[in-house]
Design goal:
Blueprint: H1 3-19, H2 22-31, H3 45-52, H4 54-78, H5 93-110, H6 123-133, H7 135-152, H8 155-175, H9 184-201, H10 203-211
Length: 227
Amino acid sequence: MDPILRLIIIIVQSYLIGSIPTALIISKGFFGFDIRSKGSGNMGSTNVFRVMGWKWGLLVQILDILKGFVAVGLVAYFFDTQMPFVNRTPFEDATVVKFIAGLSAVIGHIWSVFAGFKGGKGINTSVGLLIAMAPVEVAVAAGIFLLLLFASGYVSLGSIVAAMAVPGTMAFRYNILGVEIEGYHFMVHAFVVLAVLVIFAHRSNIKRLLAGTENRFAKLQIFKRQS
């Protein structure tokens, strides 16, 4: 198969996997309504938690994470991952192609072709990509997310900071701790791009956070200031 055609197939395949509107399918299939008509109107797991309860929210979260993980995994399993053009990064071809696949899935989740090019914020699908490619950074980001969630009750704030923490953690491990990370210079820049994409998808949340009108999970706010 022509290498360029193969890469196009990988991108389209991964985008379609990411585009599967899990929250929409579950809300219509099991509850008879469109999740976009309830709560914040978003198709992410946070809105599902709020509208349909934690069990369904957890299910949507797991399925959305799997979209990013599967997109990367299918590339490794089914495709020759040699680049169709000269790879000028210090990273092996396979990892570059896997990141392209994972990023395509994230884009599909945010702009789903099956839901009028609207979707979730991309956090869960990004987590799936990162689990496959940078598990240590994911663990650190998860800890930061939980700390901010329990301190503030804002899922969006935790998600935004966690997204920024991934390339930051990698840079800290490589430059300060001296941990050898193969292809670091490609990976850290790639994850900056991913973080920017996630932050862009949260732009409406950022406006509400600044205005003090963002929805808060008060029950999860364990660390509260005493008035």
